[in-house]
Structure formats: structure tokens, C-alpha cells
Automatic annotation (TrEMBL):
GO terms for cellular component: apical plasma membrane. Transmembrane segments: none annotated. It comes from Astyanax mexicanus. This is TRPM SLOG domain-containing protein. It comes from the Eukaryota. Residues 14-183 form the TRPM SLOG domain. One of its GO terms (molecular function) is monoatomic cation channel activity. One of its GO terms (biological process) is metal ion transport. Coiled coil: none annotated. Signal peptide: none annotated. InterPro entries: TRPM (IPR050927), TRPM_SLOG (IPR041491).
């Protein structure tokens, strides 16, 4: 990210949930020629359908992005620009990528937007760090720990929860509603589609 309008987003790389929606949105709306979009997907190697098709060094590999609906594994989201596949030795199990993703997010967040301008500025100017936002659409049990970790950081990472998408998202929305005291009224967002 060099200040020329580049953007980078880090997601799970499988073609479902947030990853699917963002990939589709980038495909439809992300064609502005001046902005380069880097969509980085991180997922466990053993969770990817037909992952052995990707093995090779310095060769071009073709990968079928249509997954088997009966499989517990998932297809890669072909709308990502980059992939980081984490091999923790497990097959068909999610979560092995979380530590790497957290470290990468922290590293990216520490970077400064327009760092050359920061060096030229004198007192009174603040260099802005790259923003990090957590988006929850559905999600399984590991999402709850991830959200807790994000909101416990200093400063906390904003978390956007899409209620009505199921599982962890709905549980987080319910907990938020049940514990809300003197919070900003955002009920006007309920009917936004």
C-alpha cells in the first residue's frame, strides 16, 4: 500500500461467507482502473478441496473452483488476488490459519498511510495507521474468540456483525442486544439491505 489508492483486504479464502460476498462485490464493483485491489485469502491447506492440484514449483496450475457440495472441504475463491495456504497437518479442519492471519493483520495495521508525508509533517499532524475491521457473517465457534480478541485490543478493532446470517453472527447480535446500555441507537440500520 503505497498511497496511490491501493487497497488490501484479508479474508478467509474459501468461497463462502464474507469471502464469497466480498469477492463477488469486487468482481462487480471493483473495476476502477486507478485502484488496485489486493484481496488476500488465508485458509488451512487441509480445508481446500483438491488441494493436491496446487502442488508444484514454478509451474502454472489450473484449479477447479466449483466444489463438491457433499465434501467437508471448500473451494478457493477465484476472485482473490493472492492466497496464503497454511499447512498445520490437519485435513478438513478450520482454524489453523488464525495465528498467521492475526500476525499479518497486526503487521499491516502498524503500517502508515502516506508514510512519506508523515516524515515531512511537523507537530500537530498524525500519521494514520492502516485500518482493521472485523466483519462477521454467520461464522462458527472460532469467530467468538476472534471477536473477543479484537474488541479487547487497545485500541479495539471495530466489529460489524450481520444479524440474521446465522450461527455466531446471530449469537453476537443477541448478546449485544441483551447487554446494550446507553449505546448509540442504530435501529435505523435494521432495514438496510
Amino acid at each position: 500500500m503505497n498511497g496511490n489508492g491501493d487497497t488490501a483486504c484479508i479474508f478467509s479464502v474459501i468461497y463462502k461467507g464474507v469471502s464469497m460476498y466480498v469477492g463477488d462485490a469486487v468482481k462487480v464493483y471493483g473495476t476502477h482502473e486507478r485502484r488496485k485491489r489486493n484481496i488476500i485469502g488465508i485458509t488451512p491447506w487441509g480445508l481446500i478441496e483438491n488441494h493436491s492440484d496446487l502442488i508444484g514449483r514454478d509451474v502454472l496450475r489450473h484449479y477447479q473452483t466449483l466444489g463438491n457440495p457433499l465434501s467437508k472441504r471448500s473451494s478457493l475463491n477465484g476472485l482473490h488476488s493472492h492466497f496464503l495456504l497454511v499447512d498445520d497437518g490437519t485435513l478438513g479442519k478450520s482454524g489453523g490459519q488464525l495465528d498467521l492471519r492475526k500476525k499479518l493483520e497486526r503487521h499491516v495495521h502498524r503500517q502508515r498511510i502516506h508514510p512519506s508525508e508523515c516524515e515531512l509533517w511537523t507537530c500537530g499532524h498524525v500519521c494514520i495507521q492502516v485500518p482493521v475491521v472485523c466483519v462477521v457473517v454467520e461464522g462458527g465457534p472460532p469467530v467468538l474468540a476472534t471477536v473477543l480478541e479484537y474488541v479487547s485490543r487497545t485500541p479495539p478493532v471495530p466489529v460489524i456483525v450481520f444479524e440474521g446470517t446465522g450461527r455466531a453472527a446471530d449469537l453476537l447480535a443477541l448478546i449485544h442486544k441483551q447487554t446494550a446500555v446507553d449505546r448509540l441507537d442504530v435501529s435505523y440500520l435494521t432495514n438496510v439491505h
